Task: structure prediction
Amino acid sequence: MSGLKNFALAGVGRIGTFIADELLNAKVAGTVDSVVVLTRDSTTDEAKRLSARGADVKAVPAYDDVAAVTAALKGADCVISTISGAATMLQPALATAAKEAGARLFVPSEWAGVSAGKTSGIHAPKAALLGHLDKIGLPYTLFWTGLAADFVWIPLLDLGLSTGKVIFGDDGNAPVSFTSRTDIGRYVVHALTAFPLEELAGKTFRIEGSRHSFNEIVRLYEAKHPGTKVEVQYTPLSELKSRIEANPYDVKSTLQHDWALGEWAVGNDDNGKWPEWKPAPVTDFF
Result:
């Protein structure tokens, strides 16, 4: 057992909601004592739902308001960040508040592909955070989970399978990891409560529900939906690189570039650390 009993979660968006629900399940089971949810708006339907389930929902003016966030985090053993997008630049302040509040472990907002060694563009905030955590002496745990199997099939990312048209980087043959957000929540909360603290601090967990290339995904989708034909287009790596050079914060081009290089094949090295974890295959979400 980790000895971590009191948790705080910053952000209840695309992944945070699922982790919050699993923490609250653990609270009902007696594994977790308290769950604090930080949000900038405690009046949303989601905030109210989590409060009704037993979360202590606390509104903070901003995640970089260190004094306010420190006060909200008092008593938390572990702080989990699920803030995303431009807000990830606020994570060093959140980590400082966690340290000042007495937290013993910090979980940065990763929930994606391999980020190690990336220091520019959309990856820069993650690298800056890890350097800051080392500087302030706050132990941390990373979770690399690949793409969200239950969410990623959207036109915004050129992955709208149901629209009949998708666009992949390079030749579409690079492997990619897929894990549903429900399964991510289950694994994360189990790891943070059941594994010894010394096996958490400084550890990167690599987990996946399944692994396929995007070309394989198209074939699996068409097999599950007989009579459906998905049009596939490919963007050369050279074009993606040019787009990123022109705009280092071009999220879609960066993702397509990294997917094409296999950097979102995180592996399943740590699936076996919880043998009872049986993640759903990506085909469940087509």
About this structure: The domain at 150-177+210-263+278-285 is CATH 3.90.25.10 (UDP-galactose 4-epimerase; domain 1). The longest strand covers residues 34-39. The chain has nine helices and twelve strands.
